[in-house]
Amino acid sequence: MIVFGAIDFASALVRVGKFLNYHVTVCDARPVFATRTRFPDADEIVVDWPHRYLDSQELDSRAVLCVLTHDAKFDIPLLERALRLPVAYVGAMGSRRTHLDRQQRLRDVGLTELELNRLRSPIGLDLGARTPEETALSIAAEIVANRRGGTGAPLTGAHTPIHHDAPRSVGRIGEVA
Questions:
Q1: Is residue 135 a part of any domain in this protein?
Q2: Whole-prediction pTM
Q3: Helix 96-108 crosses helix 72-82 at what angle (to 10 degrees)?
Q4: CA distance 80 to 111
Q5: CATH number of the domain that 98 lies in?
């Protein structure tokens, strides 16, 4: 998990990311915010422009990218690259109005509708979150639902599987292959 933007919400997301067993990196271009004091639970703290740091990484389909920067000068170059990578999840924080503006700016730099459809924004599931911790839970819930094929809908009254993992093959009695 790479969290871009060393804001208060990022601190809560780092803690939730660690709880979910991610290796968590915080990246922000502002050294006054990207500090070990503010993010004691992060595995790595990187002071660099987000898009430049992303360019230096080799990411695969397990990586999740959470863009909390709230600033087009960081968001647009970062998302232009992120949405073209084979990562599991790309989410960006912001209002619905910010999202519409962001989408247009990304179209203007050449992203296709298929690439734009990969962006989860506003980031997270609708839990009615208000605090940084509730927002982090909302983001984590969306990441898990995306990874496991969940809908994010309540299980009460639903007729969908509770567990979406592929069934494991079973060998002899009691052995799981």
A1: yes
A2: 0.88
A3: 60
A4: 7
A5: 3.40.50.720
Tell me the two tokens of residue 45. 């703290």
Nearest to 78 by CA among 141, 24, 70: 70
Which residue do the tokens 């084979």 mark? 86
| pLDDT, tens digit, 9 for 90 and up, residues 96-108 | 999 999 999 999 9
Question: What tens digit of pLDDT does each residue of 9-51 get?
Answer: 999 999 999 999 999 999 999 999 999 999 999 999 999 999 9
Which amino acid type is present at position 139?
I
Q: Residue 18's domain spans which residues?
A: 2-148
Q: Which residues pair with 28 in a beta bridge?
A: 47
Cis peptide leading into 122, omega within 30 of 0? yes
24 contacts 1 by C-beta, under 8 angstroms: yes
